[in-house]
Design a protein that fits this description.
alpha/beta, 6-stranded parallel sheet, 22 strands
Length: 630
């Protein structure tokens, strides 16, 4: 595996490929003088750079011909990714190449060069522009297909996958704000999470969720051990157990799969961007109109009693008097004359009210494309700080889950302001560090705070202030430096033990998706279970004898793989990463979860399965290809 990048995502991706998948990695980084500037708290980045320098020096001492390099990572410094550099790092014989520079143009240039050097190379690109990324993905796949003499999209190993760190981190950040965990996998518009549950008490029936993914260690159910930071106990976790193993397990926690959903209040803005009728007029204006209508009805009833006319005729005459288009009642009775004068007076009052109604209605429709203010009485919402690259994607994810959001942004020209207008999300303009800004976002009634600005100190200051207002508030911080994020998390957890606090690095959240894409486009994500990893993949049944022609029960192999769902969406309708189903007009998901055990998997089916690394390698034939030298 070859990883090329200029920021923390490249280092994190290389560590993910080595630690999770056990791959040999060559890391290409800019020279020390041209690397991205260190953050305010850059101890982790400096330590990482020093470690990479030591590894690079050790590799140089052993020489390139050494059969046993001192580490599974080789570091190469290059100012630009040219054909000579790609040849030097072995792109012509590599299994996959990741281009994760922060600049889209740099990644595209290097991808075109790499595809020309090795048409069978699996490419993973980091691009923020979704539309351009989709076109580049199709172009590179078509180039690989022409070079190999096969049809487009026939091979997984020659696939091109375009991802964005913002898109891949957004589901985890949204899920953390919603349910307090980042162990999520996204597929076909659904967000799934792995939940650890304690052993059921005697007489209780454990909820299996969508399915049981693992049995935790027999002697350790400590959440710290589940993260791999402590000993996993005498017996390790049992991945993908069968029903008998789950039923016979006593005193062991489980990891189950659940769908992330939201059932709280939502912000309704009408259909098709048209505001509801109640929002066209203010409450005071509505009462004024109702009072005038009541006056007209009272005058019509009085005229009916005075003249003895039919109610409809009396109402008609009253309206004529109201609009001043009736003849004066010179020779009528005194009661009729008084009613005509009162009708004229009500007509004078009606004119400014009608004018105000027209102006308010026009103003409401005009403001449909402008920013909204948080409505009165709003509660249970998520306060989102920052509408930059990351915040915009998270905002879209939260609204797809119908979660009410109030955004806070200091720059009126920020990237996500147009998205907030389109989604009609309330926005508070102002510096979050100033007093009164978070109060305007109704932080005291919020469900969670997502601090996603590009400044670590701003995120930390806003989180600390929000905690002073609401000590039990759920807080999620975006922090650039991993060590800084860990220190902040531990300190806030110690200060507020009964409140949920999460500090997240975007590169830490995005790296698993990039690493999974380097293993093949069918990889949807990975979820750690203590010291082991479960992979989620979408696989074509055709060509896999372990699946084709077998029932769901027969295709299950305990400890190796398990079929979770059937994907009924058309193969050609694969959406680009981060693109919402609502934007395409497509259904949210084409997955069928409740597959009967007797369902026979056909050659045309596509299934979503959970597998161990060894099980997926066996299912996809990776080991056979490696033994054959391909």
């Amino acid at each position: 595996m070859v990883v090329c990048g200029d920021d923390g995502l490249a280092h994190r991706l290389a560590a993910e490929l080595r630690g999770v998948y056990g791959e040999q990695v060559t890391l290409v980084v800019p020279p020390s003088g041209r690397r991205v500037r260190q953050p305010v708290v850059g101890r982790a980045r400096a330590a990482s750079a020093a470690l990479l320098d030591r590894v690079s020096a050790a590799v140089n001492r052993t020489g390139t011909g050494s059969a046993e390099p001192p580490a599974a990572e080789q570091v190469v410094e290059a100012a630009e990714i040219t054909e000579a550099v790609l040849t030097e790092v072995g792109a012509d014989r590599a299994a996959a190449l990741a281009l994760v520079y922060d600049d889209d143009e740099t990644n595209i240039r290097a991808a075109l060069t790499a595809r020309r050097i090795n048409p069978s190379l699996r490419l993973v690109l980091r691009l923020y522009n979704r539309r351009l990324g989709q076109h580049i993905e199709e172009l590179l796949d078509q180039t690989a297909a022409v070079a190999s003499g096969a049809g487009p999209g026939t091979g997984v190993d020659t696939s091109t996958t375009v991802l964005s760190d913002a898109d891949t981190a957004a589901p985890a950040l949204a899920a953390t704000a919603l349910v307090g965990t980042s162990k999520v996998v996204q597929t076909e518009g659904l967000v799934l999470r792995a939940v650890e549950r304690q052993p059921p008490r005697p007489g209780e029936v454990a909820d299996p969720g969508l399915c049981t993914l693992a049995l935790l260690s027999a002697t350790s159910n400590d959440p710290a051990g589940a993260d791999g930071s402590e000993s996993s106990g005498e017996h390790g976790p049992q991945l993908l157990p069968d029903e008998m193993a789950v039923a016979s397990a006593t005193g062991r926690g489980t990891v189950v799969l659940e769908q992330v959903s939201y059932s709280g209040p939502s912000l309704s803005s009408g259909r098709g961007g048209v505001p509801p009728f109640a929002s066209l007029f203010s409450r005071r204006l509505r009462w004024s109109l109702a009072g005038l209508v009541g006056c007209v009805l009272a005058l019509a009833v009085a005229l009916m009693f005075v003249t003895g006319e039919h109610p409809l005729y009396a109402t008609y005459v009253t309206l004529l008097d109201l609009f001043g288009i009736n003849d004066p009642a010179y020779h009528e009775s005194t009661g009729r004359q008084v009613l005509q004068l009162l009708s004229g007076l009500v007509g004078l009052l009606l004119l400014p009210v009608l004018l105000a109604a027209v102006l308010e209605a026009l103003g409401t429709f005009r403001s449909a494309s402008t920013l909204r203010k948080p409505p009165r009485g709003l509660g249970g919402h998520v306060v989102l700080l920052g509408l930059g690259k990351i915040g915009t994607r998270v905002l879209t994810r939260l609204r797809e889950l119908h979660i009410p959001v109030v955004c806070v942004e200091s720059d009126p020209e920020a990237r996500g302001m147009a998205t907030a207008r389109r989604l009609r999300v309330p926005v508070v303009l102002g510096d979050v560090t100033q007093e009164g800004v978070l109060e305007a976002a109704k932080i005291h009634r919020a469900h969670a705070l997502l601090a996603l600005t590009s400044a670590d100190t701003t995120n930390l200051e806003a989180s600390l202030y929000a905690r002073s207002v609401r000590p039990d508030l759920r807080v999620v911080l975006r922090l650039y430096d991993d060590d800084f994020a860990t220190a902040v998390y531990r300190t806030l957890r110690a200060a507020h033990p009964f409140a949920l606090t999460r500090s997240r690095s975007v590169s830490h959240l995005a790296a698993p998706a990039f690493a999974g894409a380097m293993m093949g486009r069918q990889i949807l994500g990975a979820i750690p279970v203590e010291r082991r990893v479960l992979l989620f993949a979408e696989v074509e049944v055709a060509g896999h004898p372990q699946l084709e022609g077998r029932t769901v029960a027969e295709a299950f192999r305990g400890g190796a793989w398990r079929v979770l769902a059937l994907n009924t969406a058309p193969p050609g309708g694969r959406r680009s990463e981060g693109e919402s189903a609502e934007e395409e007009g497509a259904p949210a998901s084409g997955l069928v979860w409740d597959l009967p055990p007797t369902y026979v998997l056909g050659a045309g089916d596509r299934v979503v399965l959970a597998a161990t690394r060894r099980g997926l390698a066996e299912l996809l034939g990776r080991r056979r290809r490696e033994r054959a030298g391909t």
